Structure formats: structure tokens, C-alpha cells
Fold this protein.
Amino acid sequence: SIYEDFAVIGNQLRAILKNRKVYYLHGYPSAIYDFALYCEQQDRSLRDKLKENLKGIFLGSEFPNKIWRAKIEEVFGVPSISWYGHTERAILAYEQSIQYEYCPFHSYGYAEATLIEGENYLLGTSYYNFASPLIRYNTEDIINPIEVENGLMEKFRISKGRSGEYILDKLDKKIPLTGLIFGRHHKLFNYCSHIQVYQEEKGKATILYSPLNKNLIINNFDMLFDDSNVNIKFHFEKVDTPVKSVSGKVNLLVNSKQ
């Protein structure tokens, strides 16, 4: 459960582990990341018990950023596999052998790359949705099609993430959050489990951060967050837990502070 306390989940897992072997974990990357932090910091005996038989971890429904993924694999000592999918169900793709390199199932939906304003966008056509079929639906993910065979895109990489996740600087320029947050190696990540962004007006944004240590007081944000060459005034606000969507996902861009 993405809403239940980890102590409760830990007790339930222990009961399961008495009679069954757990070979795989499966869930949102953000949820498994939080569980990994819990095991590492508060329940290492549960971590060690899981590691006895664990073979791998399946990450779905969210893009598994490298910080989350590295910590998950470090804590549990097994590899992870991610797949690409979305609510509209027009495209399904999986990692075959290289992380972040996705192979689409063309039997599920037709995936293609289309050049729009100088960028390759991932488009999909659904086969089985008769109620509201999606034809050349733009996922708004910008990709690099890295292998095409007989006219079909066999592999792609997500280059910039969901293009809708951006904030505006003072001059209305779009600042993609994937590059701003995960591409700059902010030292703030050394002290926080999650960083999210909230914007109410252009040129200003609030960084919501969840400290690994709830009692930690952080003041020197100018040393921990690299905002060089970004025409945005950043404000930093501590939150005990990250803001979650209705479905329980931890999105990078949020529309409220709670």
C-alpha cells in the first residue's frame, strides 16, 4: 500500500516471509524508493530477510529517475527493470538489456517518433480502445529513436521527459524540470529524500524538499541548489512527506503544497 505506514507493511511482510519466498518487488519507483529508505534507516533486519531470495525489482507507472533507482538497487542488492506505459494505454515498452532504453510492443499499440518544432515526440495509436480510440496520440514525451527496422521504431530513449513538466522564467521561457532538478547534481539530494517544484507565478518557484532526517535544519540553499543561468527566483520550503497525486504518485511538478 502506498498509503500505509511502513512499520505496518513491515509486519505484514514478515508474516508473508514466514511461509513464502519473495523473489520480486513491484510498484511505483517513488514508493519503492521510500520503502528502501525505511529499510536502510529503520528496519535492516527486514531488508536482510528480503535479500535472501530477492532477484529483481519491477518499476512501473513513473519514470524511475537515477537517484531513486540507484538507492533502490543499492539497498536491496538486485537489478531493476522499468517499463514505459501511460494512463491512455496507447504504448507499452520495456527495458530489454540497457537501462532507460525502451522496446515498444507493437502488438499493444503503434509507437512512432514525429518531429515537432525540432524535437522528436513519442506518438502512439491504440488498437483495442473502441470507446475512445487514440490515433497518433501525443504522449508529450520527447525521445531519441535509436533503432528503426523496416519502418518500425524498435527502441527509444526518453531524452527530456514529459514536456508538460516545466516552469516559466521571468521572460516566459520554458524551463524543463527533468534537466533542472535531475541534470544538475544538486547537493541538496544528499540531505533529502524528495525534491518537488511548485509554481504559482512566472519567474518564481518553490522547491519543496523532504529531509532524510526530519529534525534537520537546512539554511545554505545557495550552496546546495544550483540555479545558475536560470532566470527564476527560488524559495525553499520544508515538507515532512512529499506531495502525492490522487493515485499516490510522487510527481516532480505539483499544483499544490499539500
In short: Residues 31 and 209 are 16 Å apart (CA to CA).
